[in-house]
Amino acid sequence: MRFKVVPELRQQSFIETATRTLPLVPSSEDDCCGLLMADTGIDSRDVAREWITFLRALGQVAEADGKYYQRRDPVDDVAGAFRERVYAAETVIQTVEDSGEPLETAEVFERVRTEIPQWERNRRQDWEEVWYERVRRLLEWAVEFGHTERTTDGYHN
């Protein structure tokens, strides 16, 4: 299963903090959002929901019957989980790896846009803006997880 949600970049230590904030015993989404907002400085339920989903993608949080909890056996390779379980992360990272030269966000977007499913394009009028933002966030997280580097020339390996 791949997850589409990619929140704004935070340091990897935030992943640990957010994970520890969530309960060990399954709890409702509302309760988990409230805990994240109270303990991490997240300022809205929508952003808290994004983080719950992202933490699931990274193998830190699990879901059972619509309730969430921190996994007792979280995934150790968070960077690998990001690449494998976050939708389009592999494509974006591979694009940078294959380029042979630094790429700016717009260049990466142009190279991966053909990979964006038609149903995503049909889903909304502003799909290009939404996916450009998604690519930007994926690139930032790819740097944070050590898959790529960012210099003044762009993203590269």
Helix and strand pattern: HEHHEEHHHHHEE
Mean pLDDT: 96
| Main beta-sheet strand count, sense and barrel state | 3 strands, antiparallel
Strand content: 5-15%
> How many strand elements?
5
Distance between the termini: 27 Å
User: Which class do the helix and strand fractions yield?
Assistant: mainly alpha
Main-sheet strand order equals: 1-3-2
DSSP helix fraction: 40-55%
From the spread of the alpha carbons, the general shape counts as: globular
Helix count from the secondary structure assignment: 8
Integer count of domains: 2
Computed over alpha carbons, the radius of gyration is 16 Å
Poorly predicted residue ranges: none
Mind explaining what this structure looks like?
It holds the Pfam family WHD_halo_double. It is a single chain. With about 160 residues, the chain is mainly alpha-helical. It folds into 2 domains: about 10-70, Arc Repressor Mutant, subunit A (Orthogonal Bundle); about 90-155, no CATH class. The chain is built from 8 helices and 5 strands. The protein has helices spanning about 10-20, 30-40, 45-55, 80-85, 90-100, 105-110, 120-125, 125-145; strands at about 25-30, 60-65, 65-70, 150, 155. The strands form 2 sheets. A 3-stranded antiparallel beta sheet has the order 1-3-2. Strands 4-5 form a two-stranded antiparallel ribbon. Helix 1 (about 10-20) packs across helix 2. It is globular. The mean pLDDT is about 95.
